[in-house]
Amino acid sequence: MVSSQTYRAISGFFSGAVQGDKFALENERLRRQLDALSLYDDRIKDLEFQVDSLRQLADLAKSYDRPKVMADVIYYSAIEDRVTIAAGKNKGIEPGMVVVCAAGLVGRVQTVAPSECQALLLTANTFQIGATALGYNPAPYGLIRGDDTETLILGFQSEQPPVKSGDIVVTSGFSDKLPRGIPRGIVIGRVLSTETRPEVGASRAIVLPKVNPGNLREVVILK
Question: Which of 208, 206, 213 is nearest to 100 (CA)?
Fold first, then answer.
């Protein structure tokens, strides 16, 4: 025969087990709510970032005294150093037009289809333009080209590099033979390091691009 003390102990055990299950379910419910709130918060931040980027892009579009087209980026190929943009012949886009975003220079339109175009990114090793660094008088001019998907090379015809780590690099507005030149002063990136090349009487700087093409959503094409 079970004693009253034993009965109370057994009852307490099962009651505790039931309560434990209830607490576990409640904890799981609260955890799901916290996860949902976290996702919601991330989504809000992402939307705020998109709105801020669009606002900056709209301001940017006003800053160049030439016709412009705002368009969405619909594809990015790191292998080919290209982005596909949802604007083509239907928007008057032609090869050679400059592509920019709020952060700076993106690249240049290379091929055009009826309703989209492809732009070659400035990180491509076949993309070469004139560049300079801010904060110098006289300004140090050189040619910048893509090195890989993450860095650029800014070359100078001097044995000692005329720039230093941390300098802001922008377009110079020179050495552009195409009809639609790249305006002066568009941000390209920041100098990471410099190198001397005495064997060829030159020097160069390694530059980190300001624009991350993988994050591009909207751009402005300058006609």
Answer: 213
Whole-prediction pTM: 0.71
Share of the chain above pLDDT 90, in %: 48
Q: How far apart are the first and last CA of the chain?
A: 96
Q: Which residue has the tokens 């949902």?
A: 36
Return the closest-CA partner of residue 214 out of 104, 103, 75.
75
9: tokens are 């102990």
Distance of CA 216 to the CA centre of its chain: 6
**Are 221 and 164 a contacting pair, CB within 8 Å?**
no
The CATH classification of domain 66-123+214-222, taken from the options 3.40.50.150, 2.40.110.10, 2.60.40.420, 2.40.10.340: 2.40.10.340
Q: Of 23, 13, 201, 218, which Cα lies nearest the Cα of 103?
A: 218
Burial class (CB within 10 angstroms; exposed 0-12, middle 13-18, buried 19+) of 95: middle
Please tell me the distance from the alpha carbon of residue 70 to that of residue 39, in angstroms, as a whole number. 30
pLDDT in tens, 140-184: 999 999 987 789 999 999 888 999 999 999 999 875 555 467 888
Single-letter residue type at 46: D
Dihedrals φ, ψ of 208, to 5°? -95, 120
Residue 155 one-letter amino acid: G
Strand, coil or helix: 153: strand
